[in-house]
# Entry
Amino acid sequence: MSRLDEESRRRLGQVSVATLATCLFQYGLRNCVMQDVRPLNPNVTRVVGEAYTLRFIPSREDLDSMANYSRPDFLHRRAIEECPAGSVLVIDSGRRAEAGSAGDIMVTRLKARGVAGVVTDGGFRDTPDIRQLDYPAFHQAPAARSTPICLSPVDVQQPIGCGGVAVYPGDIIVGDADGIIVIPAHLASEVAEKAIGMTRYETFATEQVVKGRSILGLYPATAESREEYILWEQHGERG
Amino acid sequence: MSRLDEESRRRLGQVSVATLATCLFQYGLRNCVMQDVRPLNPNVTRVVGEAYTLRFIPSREDLDSMANYSRPDFLHRRAIEECPAGSVLVIDSGRRAEAGSAGDIMVTRLKARGVAGVVTDGGFRDTPDIRQLDYPAFHQAPAARSTPICLSPVDVQQPIGCGGVAVYPGDIIVGDADGIIVIPAHLASEVAEKAIGMTRYETFATEQVVKGRSILGLYPATAESREEYILWEQHGERG
Amino acid sequence: MSRLDEESRRRLGQVSVATLATCLFQYGLRNCVMQDVRPLNPNVTRVVGEAYTLRFIPSREDLDSMANYSRPDFLHRRAIEECPAGSVLVIDSGRRAEAGSAGDIMVTRLKARGVAGVVTDGGFRDTPDIRQLDYPAFHQAPAARSTPICLSPVDVQQPIGCGGVAVYPGDIIVGDADGIIVIPAHLASEVAEKAIGMTRYETFATEQVVKGRSILGLYPATAESREEYILWEQHGERG
Amino acid sequence: MSRLDEESRRRLGQVSVATLATCLFQYGLRNCVMQDVRPLNPNVTRVVGEAYTLRFIPSREDLDSMANYSRPDFLHRRAIEECPAGSVLVIDSGRRAEAGSAGDIMVTRLKARGVAGVVTDGGFRDTPDIRQLDYPAFHQAPAARSTPICLSPVDVQQPIGCGGVAVYPGDIIVGDADGIIVIPAHLASEVAEKAIGMTRYETFATEQVVKGRSILGLYPATAESREEYILWEQHGERG
Amino acid sequence: MSRLDEESRRRLGQVSVATLATCLFQYGLRNCVMQDVRPLNPNVTRVVGEAYTLRFIPSREDLDSMANYSRPDFLHRRAIEECPAGSVLVIDSGRRAEAGSAGDIMVTRLKARGVAGVVTDGGFRDTPDIRQLDYPAFHQAPAARSTPICLSPVDVQQPIGCGGVAVYPGDIIVGDADGIIVIPAHLASEVAEKAIGMTRYETFATEQVVKGRSILGLYPATAESREEYILWEQHGERG
Amino acid sequence: MSRLDEESRRRLGQVSVATLATCLFQYGLRNCVMQDVRPLNPNVTRVVGEAYTLRFIPSREDLDSMANYSRPDFLHRRAIEECPAGSVLVIDSGRRAEAGSAGDIMVTRLKARGVAGVVTDGGFRDTPDIRQLDYPAFHQAPAARSTPICLSPVDVQQPIGCGGVAVYPGDIIVGDADGIIVIPAHLASEVAEKAIGMTRYETFATEQVVKGRSILGLYPATAESREEYILWEQHGERG
# Structure
């Protein structure tokens, strides 16, 4: 799995999913924001990390039961124990929230292991407890039923679809209250840098708009507004 | 666009969407509350104003790009700059939340211009920032992708559908945590007055129910309960 | 309607919907958690009680109007007045949230009568007011339109479907932030006891995981981890 | 159950569901045509008869199994055996087609007993065999799974919802390729008569349009076009 | 409205919607095929013509009734009478099939006037009669209810969305059993020519595949296979 | 991949999907019939074979283009060329029909190679041509857009979900007009034998029902009816 350099990680932690979506659109990438994937806890939404993937398929009664969870090599458990610190566990649940993609003890373990966050296009169980963890978890809706009722883990670290978006192992996951965006690994540092610049300009533009200025000639930027921005930057936002 | 008189505006700010729905049902109007349109910020839900409409259709790659936003006459921008103070910008996004109907800088501008609120049957981008604005914004779900990825503005101030409800320019929009109701312009002052009366009676009835009284003979009102209510009104709710 | 013994009620108030779902799965019951039914007020989610059922069908303009609500025997009202203290009113709205399954005055009356909570697979009206009540109410989404616009009550205390789950009068309803689970009446006390045990073990396991222990060999339990747990129990969680 | 007089039955067999929908709209009834309910066999779509209702709720593993079908009083079987000749069996399956509402042997039995047709808002099993029967059957989609996997019968001859429409026992069901309409029993003979008149006029209007005439001044009828129609009627459509 | 030259019209009548979709994808246009829009009559699916657009919004009880249809200038009627011969009437119904976008008399009139076909993202009424017309009509599903129950016409010849695709007046509509594709007007003749070439090659490739040849090195074309194709073309498909 | 013995293959070709669903339900398997997967050509629905699986994820603009199809090892092509004769190609398209899972040339190649059939939970392109092939193809709906617009192939012969059902390579696929059922490989011969017996009894029962006999005491079978059936069997269905 590709590793995100620390500077890019820091930058991506300071920019919004919306700004990143606009940035990736400039690369011709239109479909990077997951659909129907939301923060479980609206107060804990910021996450950045490399994607470590887990894939579920529908379960089958003769293969999938709670008993599987006693096997140390069971993939659902392995994913929890092997997903590296600093990464984000991204789960393809086939966009189904009829059973839980994980519960609070698993999420507690992810947090304890230093994993940066967890994302499913299904749902989590034990959401009251997960909410207490102050840990970034994104899903579609609470899903209290036991995982094997509907879901069976079949592989880790393979390409998956999650929330209608392609996720390759090592892609960079960024989340905020708008949801989750997936940045192709090879674009991550370049995009991080660009997005920081865009964000600065947006801060400038917002400040102007708050003061009563029209968005015309200001947002998106023109040559003139860009010069003003440079001055504003130099004067430490006292503009 | 018809103007809402101040007294009606004040009254509509004091009654609930549910009460207004019951009131319009008495006029035979069944389909006035938008479906799947919710407050972005659950703490900022009250809004009253005349509808100023904007219509999107699906975008097309050769026509719709970020470049359009540099044109001062681009409709998405014009709607933001021309929507009158005191009105509500209502956006027909075809009930699609795959791309943002507007972002935080546009919403900041609406607020700065004195526009009363903004409603889409799609989604907004930059929801963490919009949430900070303490401004009434209603949508279906966050939608971080750039607008031209999916949506293209084609006209303003034409009749639209929004959340499954007809909205004609100048119709009165009222919102609370239940969502958004659309009141035909010509009925607004009459409905505002009726709804104030209904709300007073509901306050009386709720007070009685809290004290342990049955809803039978009380809600809906009977001739007897109405007399009681009149006394209660006269005694300043001390009844 | 079967009555839930006090000890089981107390126990069910201390365990989570997710734990109960795992417990019922051990009995071969996979489909006990309602889909798309959520707490109206995220701060008021705990509820336990026997199901008292009300069934709606789609309304018809010539039969269903506000006038029905003046009849003391109208089923929507009767359900509110007759649902026993300590029970939960469970409403089959055909999973439709186009009109309200109940409003704030009805819910206020349920609270005043000591009914433990109210559940619909449709939506409630007057959600701002219901939210103030600090009362457990579960639904799909706010639904401000008047009930007879879409819904007509046809019977009480008959078996219903709610959120895709069978509910027989007297089944035990338990709710938390994960949603609503339906426990068959004859299993309730047995399940309550088992779930308390499971919950204790989960508390132990979580404590271990927080300390940095792997879930392997701990969750689910093994013979060894169970012995540890027994010691932990004996030492009053000081373990 | 109310009985449909023979003349009305004959008339209703000659008019379309669309014409009946327009006719009922004149009575203020907007919601009479089922949604997502289609003829299983596109060549066998005409049906008229009184509704005999059956209601399913979601099944539960401990209550619902194939074994129930050995009990002579099991409601799913009773409905098949007791639904009167000339009536239409209408099944509320909660709009779910995950399991079959009935299979070919049951439908063969309905045909043998002289029942006029069968309607579900779920799906039928054995659709290749049912298609061979030349029998009017309406559903949402084929549903091969055994009934008790998802559905449990709970009552017959109670009011139900089917395809989003209220159906009271004895209401008149009419079907064609457009789908199923439900006519309130008390309106049936009046509506049948009106619809015959409307259908005659439509035949006249269509004939005119085929000859090249504009729909303006012809459809809907004006005083002048109505006079023409009367002449056309008198001249045996030779007009 | 731009006019399609006769040669392009002829060519577009000989190529498939799938081939046109691949062709437009080469121009970067990904979203040109309508979703959930199907031929009403599976035996009559070929259509080519310029789009003439009609837009509906949700209806409102006080504005929309059958009475409107007596007004000669009512937009639903005007669209039927004014849509030019050779064009295709394309209707934005907001993807809702709860009421009919048009019925058989209107469609008969379109045919009589020489209009090439009719498309809605809602549904048609009187589908048994429309099926008899041998006329290309595309919709989502039959919708027997009267138009004003749900839909109100608000403009013609404006840009619309239909089946999730942008349609500008004068865009070229092509349909077959795969559904409807929208070709931007300015690309039509170029695309028509390209698609004819692609279709010829596909015929060659299919012939080879039927004879047992692998698709590798054949489809998509290579330099070698293209030479073979040229020979095949010269030898009149006797290859 | 496990191979299906010829006798079982023959038997499975003679029984219905509905009967197989009932048979698998006796093994506790409830979720074996795909949802929303239908025969493309209603006249060509019978298929039996071992599953050969292909998995798609959502496409990404920088990775997925038509150019990939020139690479001989591109998975979409490899699946077509490597899927064994007698097997069924089963495609996990994430239940999305926005782009084609395959087109007519690919399906022609499958037929030429002796592959028994093709199934996707998305859609096929070129459905008019595929319909001409008299070849069993199952999908959700026509999907004319080019595959890379939405779908990217990532692996073959891995476990997948298709239409909400688990499919392991080598599982047995059986299709008819009811849709597709997936039989776990290890149960196939046993289930084939049982289903033949069930089908024989159903033929007997249907014959009786056609003659006017009640389903009570006949279907499902009783000890007595089973004896009758044995006699009927012995007398060559002349009973």
About this structure: Chains D and B do not touch (no CB pair under 8 Å). Residues 191-234 of chain D form one domain. Chain D has two domains: 6-186, 191-234.
